[in-house]
Specification:
about 40% helix, alpha+beta, 3 helices, Alpha-Beta Plaits, about 130 residues
Length: about 130
């Protein structure tokens, strides 16, 4: 079993309130879940109205395919009107026992261990 994890920040332009932010975040979470059967959660920065930190996990058996899924998800996130993809990192975990491969965008940090464990737990529950 492989678990692909994507952590990213989304800059939300024109949000006047947390309600505006939640509308964008909720819509994105619903679309990503419907399109990719991904587990998505807002994992930080909940009190800021112009930025959201989200974590996403997808479970599968083929690392190459999961990498392609993360690529498609990243492209979909970049196409969101009124929002901009900011910090973004990804990794693929093998059997939940450690990192098989990690691909980080230049200058970005890897997802923290707590986020990885939470996404791992959610992905295993979904599987």
């Amino acid at each position: 079993m492989l678990i692909a994890i994507l952590q990213f920040e989304l800059l939300i332009h024109g949000a006047e309130s947390l309600k505006d932010k939640r509308r964008v975040v909720s819509s994105l979470k619903d679309r990503l879940h419907a399109d990719y059967q991904a587990s998505v959660a807002e994992v930080g920065l909940q009190d800021l109205k112009h930025v959201a930190r989200l974590g996403l996990a997808v479970v599968g058996s083929d690392g190459r395919y999961l990498g392609q899924v993360l690529d498609r998800i990243t492209m979909q996130i970049r196409a969101i009107p009124g929002a901009e993809l900011s910090d973004c990192s990804r990794e693929i975990i093998h059997n939940g026992e450690g990192m098989l491969a990690a691909e980080l965008l230049p200058g970005k940090d890897a997802p923290d261990a707590e986020l990885a464990q939470e996404l791992l737990r959610r992905a295993e529950e979904a599987a």
